[in-house]
Amino acid sequence: MSKYKILVYGYGNPGRQDDGLGNAFVDKLERWVESEKLDGFEFDSNYQLNIEDAEAIASQDLVIFVDASTEELKDYILTPVNASTNVAFTTHAASPGYIVHLCKNLYNKIPPTYLLHIKGYEWAFKEGLSNKAVKNLELSFDYMKRVLSDPKKMIEEFQEF
Fold first, then answer.
1. What percent of the chain has pLDDT over 70?
2. How far is 78 from 9, CA to CA, in rounded Å?
3. Cβ neighbours of residue 120 under 8 Å, at least 6 residues apart?
């Protein structure tokens, strides 16, 4: 039994091709966790983050948000998130930084939180990931399996910046 509570939360719109990378990642990781009989993991996915997610992360030892990225990056990148990271909120979306900001203000806690950005390429209104996005999904999945096999290191190395 794992002594850590880990939430992996993917978000995006699977009806917009590669925008569904976060959701696809969560599905894939959840199957892996079940097949490896790992415990301590919780999974969630949605079209976007919501202010209620601050409560969901407050009780966690480690939080990994997963989203598709339009940024110029190689295949994927994992970055720390804290209460001042891209703190944005509109009536339609909340950023990971905003969720952490709310968690700090409402629950006086900031769990070690990261955002896995997976590079996407196609954003049309249709289901299914592009071939290049599937490749990036696989690469990021292989990386995160190694990282999450020993979450202690990730938790201990997290530093607010």
1. 92
2. 14
3. 17, 18, 19, 21, 68, 69, 70, 129, 130, 133, 136
Residue listed under structure tokens 């110029």: 72
| pTM of the predicted model over 0.70 | yes
Look up residue 37 and give its DSSP letter. T
First CA to last CA across the chain, in angstroms? 31
pLDDT of residue 92: 53
26-69 pLDDT, tens per residue? 999 999 999 999 999 999 999 999 999 999 999 999 999 999 99
Q: Where are the domains of the chain?
A: 6-157
Which homologous superfamily does the CATH classification assign to the domain defined by 6-157? HybD-like (3.40.50.1450)
How many residues are listed for the chain in this entry? 161
Residue 18 is given by DSSP the state G
Q: What is the distance between the alpha carbons of residues 98 and 79, in angstroms, rounded to a whole number?
A: 15
Burial of 40 (0-12, 13-18, 19+ CB in 10 A): middle
Q: Would you state the structure tokens that stand for residue 57, as one six-digit string? A: 């992360």
